[in-house]
Amino acid sequence: MTEHRERILRIERTFEAPIEKVFDAWTNADVLRRWLHVGPQWETPVAEAELLVGGRIRIVMRDPEDGAQYGASGEYLLIERPRRLVFSWTFDHHPDDEQLIELEFSEGEGVTSVVMINSGIGTEERWRDQRRGWRGCYDNLERALAVS
């Protein structure tokens, strides 16, 4: 196994929402636009989700301060609604750094836990950036689920 394949980011978050709603937040383009960006003031002008194995996921985040855009895309590899979702993930500015996002969803008494494993991160700096970015995304998701 190469060094960057061993560089793994694991995040677990719990949301006060049913499992189907949380799963849909990861697979519905309209919902993805509301939360899949690193900061509360950021935007997601592009969100595409072709929810089938082999289908494409595409996100473009925009920083409103300077207008910079950060895109990523991937391919759905496993869909087990509403328990598991796996897709490849490659940032536009690092096309040689294909990563893997694995999500496991579980529910108890209306509360849903999500365990995300993001593997294949190319460098330690990217790992730190992604840890910060995913934490921001999950904070946005929590707000989006609370109002929907």
Describe this protein with a few key phrases.
148 residues; seven-stranded antiparallel sheet
Whole-angstrom Rg: 15 Å
* Overall number of structural domains: 1
The CATH topology label is: Alpha-D-Glucose-1,6-Bisphosphate, Chain A, domain 4
Assess the beta-strand content as a share of residues.
35-45%
- Class derived from helix and strand content: alpha+beta
Identify the CATH architecture. Answer: 2-Layer Sandwich
Helix share bin: 25-40%
In the sheet with the most strands, the strands line up as 1-7-6-5-4-3-2
Largest sheet geometry: 7 strands, antiparallel
- Give the N-to-C terminal Cα separation: 42 Å
Number of strands: 7
Task: Write down the CATH class.
Answer: Alpha Beta
Number of helices: 4
CATH homologous superfamily grouping: START domain
Low-confidence stretches: none
Multimer state: single chain
Q: What's the SSE pattern? A: HEHHEEEEEEH
Q: Give the mean pLDDT.
A: 94
Q: What is the 3D form?
A: globular
